Amino acid sequence: MMQLDDSAILWSAPERERAGRPLLVLMHGYASHEGDLFGMSPGLPLEPVIASLRAPIAENGGWAWWSRADSPSGNPPMQRVDEAASAVIDWLDTLAYTRVSLLGFSQGAAMALQLLRHAPTRFAATVSLSGFVAAGEHAGDGPLAAVRPPVFWGRGTEDAMIPSDAVDRTAAWLPEHADATIRIYERLGHSISSAELADFTAFLHQHA
Q: CB within 10 Å: which end of the chain, N or C, has fewer?
């Protein structure tokens, strides 16, 4: 069973300062690490405690939520994404937070959307950056469509990492399953711009 390394998680506050605050979970992209998105912490809303996770699979000089060995870009097997999402759910189940939000980039963004399928009522806000929804029907899709939680999906017009079919799939799926805020950024590649940072920070201020 896949598990997260609890000792690798970066927290924005010591344990004694976390009680009574909401939680914002950060999930990095492929071959990256827990310190990547954590660098944005000073610019994110101050109220939530931030926990930046390390993906469980060591690959290509960093860490991955699922291996690229058997996963075409933008089209990983549903089972692989589910295994990683279950590991995050198991970790969350060890905590006492009653209000949790998600922020992921690339593979981590796909993870954020998959976590919504696993627990449609659990997350206050979800930010998916330069990511996609895994292909195929999921048991959580029906309940998720009934709840329609707030989701921010941002992507760049020059992002060559996410295939067009994955983008099209997400563009069709998201409005049917969430209260979606969709932003497209001209000339942005597979990265996060200052304009996008301002937009999803405002979204988190409103919903997280």
A: N
